[in-house]
Amino acid sequence: MEATYVALCKHGYASLRMQDIAAESSKSKGTLHYHYDSKQELLSAFLEYLYDSFAARIDALEADGPDERLRALIETVLSPRDGETEQEFRTALLEIKAQGPYDDEFRVQLEAFDHLLHERLESTLLDGQERGVFRDDFDAESIADFLVTVLNGAQTRHVAVGHPPEQTRAQLLDYVDRHLVATTDADAANGTNDANAAEERSP
Amino acid sequence: MEATYVALCKHGYASLRMQDIAAESSKSKGTLHYHYDSKQELLSAFLEYLYDSFAARIDALEADGPDERLRALIETVLSPRDGETEQEFRTALLEIKAQGPYDDEFRVQLEAFDHLLHERLESTLLDGQERGVFRDDFDAESIADFLVTVLNGAQTRHVAVGHPPEQTRAQLLDYVDRHLVATTDADAANGTNDANAAEERSP
């Protein structure tokens, strides 16, 4: 899986060959073919591995309540894990997304990612609404869906035109402050709100 | 250009050959090569043609004021022009976006698209703020950038997981109603706002 990651970053999806993956691993091309019939099958296993890592990563996020959890989810998706290869890796993932309509295996994996992110965002929003941390005048399912769209857009623009994901991260955190976080009566009386409070908390 | 469109829809970007484009046109492969050195060069000309069509299309939008213009821009980007081939075409465009980091010609064209959309959204938002149609407490440049990200995300999810662009369209129009449109004093007194007014206007 590590060799697949490195090979994908180096060669991109379209021109990637089993041989390129073997070259990055301690296994021979023959051994790879013994386990995986095709590049598609190996990459499908790789996407499953990515899904598991991503799920483990977001479920291990430490957050004090739904407001912090929502911000942590946004930051996790929009923060590069590995500066040097992140751009190459994102590009390969976008190539794979463009295979969605042609490859049922990829499609299933891509849908699983989409649903996972959607589900975690929605349950966080619902939790926050129940606890009165978030406003109750929005539809959590629809806003979760909207946020998944924004996160996809940030990744696409990063690859296509070099748009900085940090910019979308800042815009989304501002969106959370202005439109999702509930303003308490005390905040209103003090002429302050959770947005300012969040700003004061940050380093 | 029409032949390139048809061939892209049929074959996608990665496996497209000059021959496939010639097969859809009245020109021979030799004639195509006479005008365009490579597939990249022909596709770059095609992207320029798409840019010009898109610019002409959004500049010809008829709208009564900035609020209507903003909605018309969103609807134009998120409405399929050609139902049957739209999905194939969007897929090919996503493949081309994934080439952004590798191909300087494509990158220039992709950036031009991004800037065009950003500029038209920003000037519409500024116009609306000046006329008091939109709230004055947001940064037009940043919101325009955010909207471009959302529109990119809708297109990516449409291709990757079949997410319906109409859903993002509805969410964005709701976003405009709730967060961008200025609430007038009269609206506040009547317990209504432009959101409801817009709803009443639509069929």
Automatic annotation (TrEMBL), chains A, B:
Residues 17-36 bind DNA. Residues 1-54 form the HTH tetR-type domain. GO terms for molecular function: DNA-binding transcription factor activity; transcription cis-regulatory region binding. Residues 184-203 are annotated as: Disordered. PROSITE patterns: HTH_TETR_2 (PS50977). It comes from the Archaea. SUPFAM superfamilies: Homeodomain-like, Tetracyclin repressor-like, C-terminal domain. Keywords: DNA-binding, Repressor, Transcription, Transcription regulation. Residues 184-196 have a biased composition (Low complexity). InterPro entries: BetI_C, Homeodomain-like_sf, HTH-type_TetR-like_transc_reg, HTH_TetR, Tet_transcr_reg_TetR-rel_C_sf. This is TetR/AcrR family transcriptional regulator. The lineage of its organism: Archaea, Methanobacteriati, Methanobacteriota, Stenosarchaea group, Halobacteria.
